Amino acid sequence: MAATNKAGFNQFDTKALNQQDKAHLLHPWQVFDVFNKEGAMPIAAGDGAYIYDSDGNRYLDAVGGLWCTNIGLGRKEMADAIAEQVCTMAYANPFVDMTNVPAVKLAAKLADLAPGDLNHVMFTCSGSAAVDTAFRLIQFYQNCRGKHDKKHIISRKNSYHGSTYAAMSIGGKPGDHPPEFDFITDTIHHISTPNFYRAEQIKNEKEFLNFLLKELEEKILSIGPEKVAAFFAEPVMGAGGVIIPPEGYHQGTWKICQKYDVLYVSDEVVTGFGRLGHWFCSKEVFGIQPDILITAKGITSGYLPLGAAIYSDRIHNVISEEGKGRCFSHGFTYSGHPVACAAALKNIEIMEQENILGHVKHIAPYFLTQLKTLLDLPIVGDVRGCGLMACVEFVKNKQSKERFPEELDIGKWISNQADSRGLIVRPIVNLNVMSPPLIINHDQIDCIVSTLRESIISTVEELIEKGHF
C-alpha cells in the first residue's frame, strides 16, 4: 500500500514501477543498452519549478519538463479551466464545417500575438505534427501556384524540428538520424550550423556570417531557385545546443529567401511563449517576418498537448482562391481539441496577468551572468544562452576546444551528479542544456549554478581518478 510522504503525495513501489516500465514502455530516444541496465526515473508529482520522483525526492527542474513548463506545475487555475471545459464539452469534431468555441478564440488570439500577417492557424497535437503540417502546407501552396517542382527544403545541420517522418528529415542532428531509420534525402538539404564557437578556420563573427549567408545563397542556386520551396530555421537552436547565430544572420537569411521566392519557416516551438521574453521572437528579437511560424510546448505550458502552424495571408489567399474547388485534405482527429485550446487560453491569460514576459526580461540576464561564472572550471569550454535557455559545453582542452570522446557521454556523467544533488539538467553528449520554468527566481538560479558547479567539480575528480582527464 502506498504511503503519503511529507511532500504531500503518495509514495510508490519504485522497484515495481521500474520493472513495469522496462517491460512495457518504449521511451522517446531510448538508448536500449543503457536503459536495460539503469531504467528510468519515475516522476510522480510537480509543484512550480520542482518535480518529485516516486520516492518523494525533490528536484529543481532546470529543464522545464522539455522546454515547456513555462508557468510552473500544479497551478489550480489551470486545473479548474481544464475541468470546466471537460464538463462543458470534452470533444468536438474539427473537420470540414464544424468548429468549437475554444479553438476559434485561441486561433484569433494567436493571430493577434503572432507578427505581421500571420493570421491563419492549423492546430496539431505537437510541434512535430505542426512541422509536418507546414511541410504539407508548403507543398499544397506551391502546387496551387503551379510550381510543381518547387518542393526542396533547406535546413541546418544540428537543427531539431521534431520526430515525425518529415520533421525528423528536416532536422539535422546526426544523432537523430541513426541508420536503422529511413529519412527523406532527395529533397531535403542541410547547411552549416551557425555556431561560431565551433567555426574552425574562421577568424571573426563577421567573416563567419558572410560565409553562412553565401552558403545559403549558393545552396539555393545549386538546387535551382525554381525548385527550392522553403527554409526552416529555429531562431535559437534548442536541442542542437542553444546556438545563437551571429548578429544579422536571421535578417540575412530572410532577405535571401525573399530574393528567391523561398518561404521562411520559423520554428518557435521552443522560443515561443516567453522563453526569450516575447510571445514570439522572430520579429521582436531578430527582426524577421516569417511566412509560417511553428509553435507548441509553451502554448499550454505543457499542461496538455497542443501545437500550431500559423501562416500568412499571402499563403492563405493562394490556397483558398474561390472557384478552384480545392480541399486541404490534411488534419487530425484532435486538431483544435477544445480542452487543449481552453488550457492554452488560460495559460496565456495567466502569463498576461502575471507579466511573465516582463519577468523573463528582468531575470534572464542574471541567469546567464551567473552561469558564466562556471567558465573558471577546467572542463567548461563555453556558456551561452538567450532569454531563459542556456547551454554549458564541456571540453577536454579549453584552448583547442577538443571534445571528450562521445562514448564517455560527459554531459550525462555531470547530469547524474546533478540528479544526486536534487537538480535536473538535460545532457546532450558533451552539453548540459537548461530551459527552466519562466517563473524561476533569483534563489533558484543560484541553486542551479552552485549545484551544477559542485557536480562538475565532482565529475572532474572522477575523470582524473579514472584517467580520462
Overall description:
The protein is α/β, with parallel strands linked by helices and 469 residues long. It folds into 2 domains: 14-71 and 355-465, Aspartate Aminotransferase, domain 1; 77-353, Type I PLP-dependent aspartate aminotransferase-like (Major domain) (Aspartate Aminotransferase, domain 2), CATH 3.40.640. It has 14 helices and 15 strands. It has a 7-stranded mixed beta sheet with strand order 4-10-9-8-7-5-6, sandwiched between helices. A hairpin with a 2-residue loop joins strand 1 (43-47) and strand 2. Helix 4 (76-88) runs antiparallel to helix 11 (338-353). The longest helix is centred in the C-terminal third of the chain and has 24 residues, at 442-465. It is globular.
Topology summary:
Layout (H helix, E strand, L loop, with lengths): L13 H11 L7 H7 L4 E5 L2 E4 L4 E4 L2 H4 L8 H13 L12 H13 L4 E7 L2 H18 L7 E5 L8 H6 L17 E4 L13 H19 L4 E6 L15 H11 L3 E5 L24 E4 L11 E6 H7 L18 H16 L2 H16 L8 E7 L2 E6 L15 H11 L2 E2 L1 E3 L2 E4 L7 H24 L4
Parallel strand pairs: 3-13, 5-6, 5-7, 7-8, 8-9
Antiparallel strand pairs: 1-2, 2-3, 4-10, 9-10, 11-12, 12-15, 14-15
Brief account:
This protein has 469 residues and is an alpha/beta fold. Helices cover 38% and strands 15% of the residues. It has 14 helices and 15 strands.
Number of domains: 2
Number of strands: 15
Contiguous low-pLDDT stretches (5 residues minimum) are 1-6
CATH topology of the largest domain: Aspartate Aminotransferase, domain 2
What is the CA–CA distance across the termini? Answer: 47 Å
- General shape: globular
CATH class of the largest domain: Alpha Beta
- What's the order of the H and E elements? HHEEEHHHEHEHEHEHEEEHHHEEHEEEH
Helix content: 25-40%
Biggest sheet strand order reads 4-10-9-8-7-5-6
